[in-house]
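Box S1 | Example of a co-folding query
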Amino acid sequence: MRWLPAAAALLLVMPLVWMAWSSRIPGTYDPAAMGYADFGGGSRHDHVWSHRNIAVSTLTADPSRPADVSVEFHTAQHGHRFTVNGSSPGPVLRATVGDLIEVRLVNDGVRRGTTLHWHGIDVPNAMDGVAGVTQDAVPMGGSFTYRWVADRAGTYWYHAHQVSHEQVRGGLLGAVVISPAATDTVVDEPVVLHRYGSRQTVNGRVGQVASSAKPGDTVRVRVINTDNALTSAWVSGAAYRLVAVDGTDLNEPGLATGKRVQITAGGRADLLVTVPSAGARVSFAGGRSLLLGGLPGVPAVRQPKEVVDLLGYGAPQATDLARATPDRTFRYDIGRRPGFVGGKPGWWWTINGRRFPDVPMFMVTPGDVVHMRISNHSGRSHPMHLHGHRLLVLARNGTASSGSPWWTDSLEVADGTTYDVAFVADNPGIWMDHCHNLPHAAQGLVAHLMYMGVRSSYRISGRNQPE
Ligand code: C2O
Ligand code: CU
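Box S1 (continued) | Returned holo structure for CU-O-CU linkage
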């Protein structure tokens, strides 16, 4: 009977071995066929769209239109750090609304290959820069030309979407500023917040950074959170307003003075400050600040406790989308459960109760009004980002949005929180819908929005690792 304990142990271990074995991720995924299709209560066999065969690579900007802005971005790697044209953050990409922008990416030295994704900009699908979904990663020595029309003014950013949890953390990123057609007298100050190891930086520098703004100037501070977690910004020495979130202006924003603004990972917040004669200071979590109106500047103040709550900030304004009846309704329910992903045991994220790669494809046809309920009971917060579309927040935990229309592409969904959002499916393609705490995405917190009839010839495989 000496074999009994061994047999019992084997009986215990066998199911685990089987679970690990059965969870092994196949080497290659077709992004148009992975996981399971979720039709959100809408039609499954749309007679026009489901029989089409539209290749992602054909979803481009007008190829015959000449570019208004044309730049070349060279990417390089130095250990765990990455640069664009020799610096991190890379150059600010500036254009005016309506411009056709052409960026030629030349990968001089990123060993695993790279891409550029235009976070928050609703580019045509072939220009979205997701390795294995909308293109192949650009190998060392290779190049790829992105062309898209800047159709909305606002603050955005670009970053790698190949092994993004390493390349973005290592600094392969930069700001995008799309100015409105009518030039106003506002001084523009993009602020890229990024943490390089333990160095918390503002535009690549630690501590205090001085702006060129002078007393009397009105400054639009375009704060971009390129890190994996929520951050905060606040102003001292002057009154201020939060005038835009994720590239969209807010309607009649009130004074935010004495409060702080939270910025979701991947998100942007534009603060408007008129600089008094004594100057003003914009502070950011992590001991960083931007001085407006010259040195020595006003003293730093502690982070305010009170937060600007976007659910009720600014004045309401009717939108067609908020009134429209949805054609499809999806849920994106984030949980966590022990098990195996890719043969590895862990405490893995789940989407609608299932683990990667068994994740939903949210199926739509062009023109659909889509409602999505994003809820989180995973014990952690998740900054959720949908590519190629902007979301309108309808409600949080059942309380309707009562302020300015709140459009977002990077929405902080705290543990225990539910958001109802709406969007119009007006940009055909295959679009990632993932957590922008990028290690979470690499751990499987990714799903996608899938237009019926669209096909991808790219594959998520050894060479293409979008997250
Ligand atoms: Cu800014 Cu899919 O990412
Ligand atoms: Cu997350």
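The pocket of copper (II) ion (ligand 2) is lined by residues 382, 435, 437, 440, 445 (CB under 6 Å). The two ends are 51 Å apart (CA to CA).
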